[in-house]
Amino acid sequence: MALDSHAKNAPEHVAIIMDGNGRWAQSRGKPRLFGHHAGARRVREVVEACPDLGVKYLTIFAFSTENWKRTQVEVAGLMSLFRRYITKEARALKDEGVRVRFIGDRVRLDHKLQTLMDELEQLTEHNDRVHLTIALNYGGRDEVARATKRLAQDVAAGKVDPETVDGETLARYLDTHVLPDPDLVIRTSGEARISNFLLWQSAYAEYEFIDTMWPDFSAEVFGNVIAGYCKRDRRYGGVRA
Ligand code: IPE
Ligand code: IPE
Ligand code: MG
């Protein structure tokens, strides 16, 4: 079954919109933050499943540029969870060969969290078994706008000839510039929207919207989604060979 999908057509890069933590908690009569903690505990299992599934890059959406609209209690709880998560998981991530990167605009995050993010990136920078990218204060439009601003600055400084600017040029200014485009984007919790995630990079991604709430997303569910992906026919605007 799922593990046989370690085939040549396994997705190299899987991106996940980890949605449904709040509803998962509320359906159990618990506060939303209880769901966020349960969701964070799922991440390790999913990362560890990647090598057997043939997945080299995993990108997870942890906090969007729109999530600041939530209550102060929820936002503060999430920020505290991110600090705790990084502190607690750093050693295991390093030992398991996981290279961690963060994408998103760090400027609005508190300094302690920014420092922890920088340290985790440095601690794991020589790892190559799985590349885990965590999107934190990330929004696809914000990313393209920030990239465009830096590109415009380089044009104004005479470093880039505007006549040469194409899609590849812009992609080099994105937070994801070192990552391949995602092959598969999974969203949990039954919502069928992308909520500003990897807008540019997902131009040809396959999408899978599943009803499972993120805290229930197990390695087995992950394997089944990957197995389904492996049966798909990607044409990129061409015709089947
Ligand atoms: C996803 O779960 C986690 C974050 C957005 C931080 P939600 O918190 O969106 O959970 P629901 O969608 O309200 O159930
Ligand atoms: C998307 O989920 C963001 C993350 C999973 C971090 P949301 O729950 O914020 O998305 P909407 O509001 O339902 O579109
Ligand atoms: Mg949600």
TrEMBL record:
Q: Which cofactor does it need?
A: Mg(2+)
Instruction: State the protein's name.
Output: Isoprenyl transferase
Q: Name one GO molecular function term.
A: magnesium ion binding
User: Where would one find coiled-coil regions in this protein?
Assistant: 106-133
Enzyme Commission number: 2.5.1.-
Q: Give GO cellular component annotations, separated by semicolons.
A: cytosol
How is the subunit organization of this protein annotated in UniProt?
Homodimer.
Binding-site positions, substrate = 20-24, 32, 36, 64-66, 68, 70, 187, 193-195
Q: Which species is listed as the source? A: Donghicola mangrovi
Q: Say which enzyme class the record assigns.
A: transferase
